[in-house]
Amino acid sequence: xxxxxxxxxxxxxxxxxxxxxxxxxxxxxxxxxxxxxxxxxxxxxxxxxxxxxxxxxxxxxxxxxxxxxxxxxxxxxxxxxxxxxxxxxxxxxxxxxxxxxxxxxxxxxxxxxxxxxxxxxxxxxxxxxxxxxxxxxxxxxxxxxxxxxxxxxxxxxxxxxxxxxxxxxxxxxxxxxxxxxxxxxxxxxxxxxxxxxxxxxxxxxxxxxxxxxxxxxxxxxxxxxxxxxxxxxxxxxxxxxxxxxxxxxxxxxxxxxxxxxxxxxxxxxxxxxxxxxxxxxxxxxxxxxxxxxxxxxxxxxxxxxxxxxxxxxxxxxxxxxxxxxxxxxxxxxxxxxxxxxxxxxxxxxxxxxxxxxxxxxxxxxxxxxxxxxxxxxxxxxxxxxxxxxxxxxxxxxxxxxxxxxxxxxxxxxxxxxxxxxxxxxxxxxxxxxxxxxxxxxxxxxxxxxxxxxxxxxxxxxxxxxxxxxxxxxxxxxxxxxxxxxxxxxxxxxxxxxxxxxxxxxxxxxxxxxxxxxxxxxxxxxxxxxxxxxxxxxxxxxxxxxxxxxxxxxxxxxxxxxxxxxxxxxxxxxxxxxxxxxxxxxxxxxxxxxxxxxxxxxxxxxxxxxxxxxxxxxxxxxxxxxxxxxxxxxxxxxxxxxxxxxxxxxxxxxxxxxxxxxxxxxxxxxxxxxxxxxxxxxxxxxxxxxxxxxxxxxxxxxxxxxxxxxxxxxxxxxxxxxxxxxxxxxxxxxxxxxxxxxxxx
Length: 744
Known about the structure:
Strand content: 15-25%
Number of strands: 27
Largest sheet: 10 strands, mixed
Shape: globular
Structural class: alpha/beta
Radius of gyration: 26 Å
């Protein structure tokens, strides 16, 4: 039986319309014109069969390939378990790369650096995300013995990685994503902490500072700590730990970047320290990996584990799903075609898998348990303890069937006389932004961002969608109405809707209703029983202070987290509001009086020629009193559509300038807008016509002035693919409508 021979008796996937759209856009195999060439049923059978086919390699398996393929199919189309996106996209295809997470080492030579760029491009092309530690690179201005020159430092090379990523689209479906990490004792640490101050800088990177326990002790004691050059292992100076920590906190308050990881804690939990030291994680931070290591992930849907039992959980069914899921993920390691032989060797020597959960908020809603409660924390610990214990037990059973992972004798398990195990790790709480859309459940272990929201569909129709458990609860409380759903869609929350019973408001809390400390406590509860790490965002209101972030960071260190990501609502232009309230705040019902300045009879200026991906752009900027007053954009030898766009940009920029808008604000709006034909220039990438206009204005008039973040005046940004609002959760910007994610 081939992958395409779908048994006639298989049930059809039960998909909502949103899931169908996401599957068609991101997962179904495509023909030469981009049209789907398989059905949803064929997709899930393709994945189930190709992963189950690996079972034939093992004589002791209790399953036939057909039996296991049917079990895997039922698991996925029932949405009780889903693997990571590359497995859904690529299993049973020529590409065949099924892992999501990779870490590539970056050595301290040009050959090693550009080998890493090439390797990352190959991984992005195959659908994976990459993590890098830049801590091995010598600091800025250090001598390079082979040339007699000086080094440019880690941040400069990160920009090269960022530009390369921009040019490679993952598997034809999504943009590559990176994690950049630098040790806190690297001499360039301050430049790294500040490297994403400007909007649009390193836009394909999440960044995290690797904090050591020695540094944290120095923070507590308000002492200096040494900076160590990695190329010589000699101290090059020192910084005050408390001051560095304060800068780190301030930058996180301003933009959410950088996050932090606790490097010593991660390496204490490294199951194979004799094989290597962990330097980095994957893009969303939940998967620490050795150099050249990869991991495949999957998630159990806890929303479907609610049951009419004394504690509300169907533990028997959860056990069944975990057992099948672990076997599935172990088979994926054998089925996957990795982009580099070094990766194949490392992955199959350690055989790490990462089984996690999604739908946790939905489970709490069904059980009537508030997310921000001790009862919620206890349920989190109990559920994850169960998943970890059972997954480890299945890994031991697979070791009896198939053998332990090859590096087992060099592992901490062997030293502790535990095992043998088939897999060096078995549990990870990964982001499930797109998977949770397919499954129709809440993402990962996050609370919902909004209980109800408006979605714009074809022909301008506006539909209000609500969480089904919330809708059932308000119907039971006899307060449901279309007007209520509209109000909740506008606010996102029911916290201040007085006519909803208090017990309903207490249970149905959303991300911004929850005090930041409860976000952190929940992360710590899941981390307690997770081998790897937990993808989770600590959401803070806009009015949160830097001191609150400092407390969250310190609490994460004390409570055993392996890292933490914070996001203060509204802190940067890619702001994520799912609700409509804030876009109307401060707006008057009356039209403001126009204050556009009249054009003088005579003005002077300059014309600059810029090479763009759409042709030669001639930008004329006229000035009044030495300041830009109007802009004319003309693009040579282009079609009428491009000419019209250039003219429109010029007219709107001119209107803004003549209305008194600061040139820095205009640059902030235009800079970084992507286009279909980016081109290289000396200091980076020219992305589009508006990006070119921004470059000219910034170069001519700002002269070192910072470009303000562009969230405030023109409303909250939307998904670049479908126009719906983005949400920031699980350490990444995601679209609940079409499945777009900025983190691959």
